[in-house]
Amino acid sequence: MKHKVDRALIKFSRIFKDAGYSCYLVGGAVRNLSMGFKVSDYDFATDALPEAVIKLFRKVIPTGIKHGTVTVLFSGHKLEVTTFRTDGDYTDLRRPDKVHFTPSIYEDLKRRDFTINSMAYDLLSGELLDPHHGKDDLKKTVIRAIGNASERFQEDALRIMRACRFAAQLNFSIEESTLAGMKDKAQNLKAVSAERIRDELEKILKSAQPSIAFHIMADTGVLDVVLPELSACRGVLQKGFHSFDVFEHSLYSCDGAPADNPEVRLAALLHDVGKPSTLSHDELGIPTFYGHEQKSVEISRNIIQRFKFPKAFESNVLNLIQNHMFNFQPEWSDSAVRRFIAKAGLENIENMFALRRADQFGMNRTSIDSHNLIDFHKRIRNVIDADHAFTIKDLAVNGHILHEKAGIPKGPKMGIVLEFLLETVLDDPDLNNEEDLLKISANFYKERLQK
Ligand code: ATP
Ligand code: MG
C-alpha cells in the first residue's frame, strides 16, 4: 500500500515520529488505498494535541479545534489531523465540550462508524491496524457498524445516512444487524440537521448508482423521514412504455443521469414526484397524471429549500423539472425550434437532453437514444450554430439605439418593444439587423403603444 502514497506524506509522518508522536492515516484514505482506488483527501490521527500539531508545522488552519482537528498545508496537500478521540466514557486527556482525547489509537478507532472506516495505517512502518476487521468486510463488500448498531445510530443518526451513502459509493450491501439498527433508529434522523443530511444526499447523487442508496433508504424507513415525497411514489403504477412504478422509475432515471451533473441527477430523481397527487384514471381505467410537472416543481421546491441547496442550483433543477415534458415533432419549423430554445434558455438545453435521456433510461434500464431525440438535438444544434438571437441581448439593437433612432421613449414600453422584436427575429432571423428592427419597432410603437 505504501508505494501508492505520495512521498510527501511519508515525510509528513516522520515529522510526528521525530517529535515523539504517533501518526496514522485513517478513514476513507485507508479504505480507498486498500481497495486500490484513488485517494483525494487524507485524514490523519495522532496522539499529539492540536496545540502541539500547530507547533510542528508552519501552515496550520484551526479548522475544528474544538473537536481536535486542524488542517496542515504541506507540500501542496491539505491534510486533516485529528487528535485521538473517544466519544465514550473512557477519558485520559479530558477536554471540554464533550470531546475527550485519548492516547490510544485503539480507543479512537472504536468510536468510528463502520469497520471499513476504522483502519489505521502507519506510513512509516507499513503496519495496518485493523481491530474491527475492516479488511475482511471490504473483501466481503459489506458495511457493518462497529459494536451494537442500534446504540451507534442512537449516538449519531447521521451514520444511518452514511451507511446508505457508502453502499451506493462502493456498491456494498449492509450487514444484517446493521440494517436492523438502521430500521430501529430511522426516526432519529428527524433530529439531524438538514445540512448534514444534504451533504450525504449530494454524495449519493455523485455515486455510480444512487438507486442503491435510495432502495436501502426505502427498505429501512429512512426515506419516509428524509424524503417522504419520494416515498409516496412507491406503488404508483404507470402504463405505456414504463416497466416500473413511479418510485422505481425515479431511481433508475437518477442512475441514468450523468454522475458528474448533480442538477440533472436531482431533477431526474424528482421529475415525477408530482405524479401521486395528480393521479386519476381515464374511462378505460388507464392512469393519467395531467399537470404533474407543475406539481413536481412545487414539491421539489419544498424539498430543495428544506435541504438549503444554493439558490442557483434550485432554480436550475426546477427549470429542468418544469420543462421535462417537451415533445418535439419532426414537422416543427425552425422558428418553433428557436422559440423552444428561447423559452428553455440556451444554457439549459444540454441538461434538458441529459434529463430526457435519463428519463428514457428509467423506463426499462436500457439506454437507447430515441430517433426523435437525436433528430431534435440535430435540429437544435443547427439552429444554435447559425448563431441567431435567442434573448433580447442578442438583438441587433438595444434600448439606447431604439430611443435615439426610432424615438421610442425609455421606460416600461421599451421593454414591450424589445420583447416584440425578439419574437419577430425568432420567427425570421434575417430581420435581426438594425435597419429592419428600427422600422419594425417604430411601426409597432405607433400602431400598438403610442396611445
Ligand atoms: P469520504 O471522505 O469519502 O466522504 P470518509 O470515510 O473519509 O469518506 P469522512 O466524513 O471524511 O468520511 O470521515 C473520516 C472518518 O471519520 C470516517 O472514515 C470515519 O472513520 C470517521 N467518521 C466520520 N463521520 C463519522 C460519524 N458520524 N460517526 C463516526 N465516525 C465518523
Ligand atoms: Mg474523508
Mind telling me which CATH architecture of the largest domain this is?
Answer: 2-Layer Sandwich
Overall domain count: 4
Q: Give the total of beta strands.
A: 14
Give the helix proportion (percent range).
Answer: 40-55%
Structural class: alpha+beta
Count of discrete alpha- or pi-helical segments spanning 4 or more residues = 23
Largest β sheet strand count, sense and barrel closure: 7 strands, mixed
Task: Report on the architecture of this protein.
There is one protein chain. The chain is of the alpha+beta class. The protein has four domains: 7-140, Beta Polymerase, domain 2; 141-226, Hydrophobic Seed Protein, CATH 1.10.110; 260-383, no CATH class; 392-449. Helix content is 52%, strand content 10%. It contains 23 helices and 14 strands. The protein has helices spanning 7-18, 28-34, 50-56, 105-110, 134-140, 149-155, 158-170, 176-185, 194-206, 210-220, 222-226, 228-231, 246-256, 262-270, 275-278, 292-306, 311-322, 334-344, 349-364, 371-385, 399-406, 412-427, 434-449; strands at 23-26, 42-46, 60-64, 69-74, 77-83, 85-86, 93-94, 100-101, 120-121, 128-129, 142-143, 173-174, 280-281, 287-288. The protein has a seven-stranded mixed sheet with strand order 3-4-5-2-1-9-10. A three-stranded antiparallel sheet has the order 6-8-7. Strands 11-12 form a two-stranded parallel sheet. A hairpin with a 2-residue loop joins strand 4 (69-74) and strand 5. Helix 10 (210-220) packs antiparallel against helix 13 (246-256) and helix 18 packs across helix 20. The chain is globular, with a radius of gyration of 29 Å. It starts with 6 loop residues before the first helix and ends with a helix. The model is unreliable at 89-96 (pLDDT under 50). Bound molecules: adenosine-5'-triphosphate and magnesium ion. Adenosine-5'-triphosphate binds next to helix 7.
